[in-house]
Amino acid sequence: MKKTIKTKEKILLNAIEQYNEFGVQSITSRHIASKIGISHGNLDYHYKTKEDIILAIYDKMRAEMSDYFVARKENSSSIEHVHLLLIRLEEFQYKYRFINLDVLEISRAYPQIATLFQQTSEYRKLQMDSLFQEFRSNEYMIQIEPEIFEQTQHIIRIIITFWLSQREVLGTAKFAEKGAMVKSIWAIISPYLTEKGKEEQQKTIAKYGYTQIT
């Protein structure tokens, strides 16, 4: 039996599609209503403003991403878990393309969403720190000075946040292929891996590649 998609979900799915293709500023609620065949008043009943729509999309994205941070394949190593997580993070770059491309514009236009961006970033920082601590306890990572450790994590967060933007601006073909973001992040982490860590990393990449989720 085919599942019926509720109007609120239809609005969000179509908003994501149009925002991804044309950008946030180019699409109004009337565009979205017209595309899914409802009145503007009907859409307004569910979401009063564009900010409400973007907030709902961001909540949806955060919930999905949080599941990936927590979910873990049985008997997987911490390196395998992080590798699969990075692949999912890159997939999200394209699924929610507009958020990554228009992050500065959205932050300036909608302060409430900007605050959520910052809160989420701090929370992900704690989660990343926990994963790196597990690398250490598993003897996958060498001891790093706290300042370098913090800077490394910050660089990784910058890469994730602005990956699509740098592709648009720099236009480097080498970094346009799928999996390039995952490779770039491992390039930051790899110098700090022990021999044991490098062996586990190589085994994990041989198993999954940079784009495939099994």
From TrEMBL:
Cross-referenced InterPro entries: Homeodomain-like_sf, HTH_TetR, TetR
Annotated region of DNA binding: 28-47
Keyword annotations for this protein, in alphabetical order, are: DNA-binding
Keyword Manganese assigned: no
Keyword flag Nucleotide-binding: no
Q: Name one GO molecular function term.
A: DNA binding
Start and end residues of each HTH tetR-type domain: 5-65
Q: Name one Pfam family in it.
A: TetR_N
Protein name as it appears in the record: TetR family transcriptional regulator
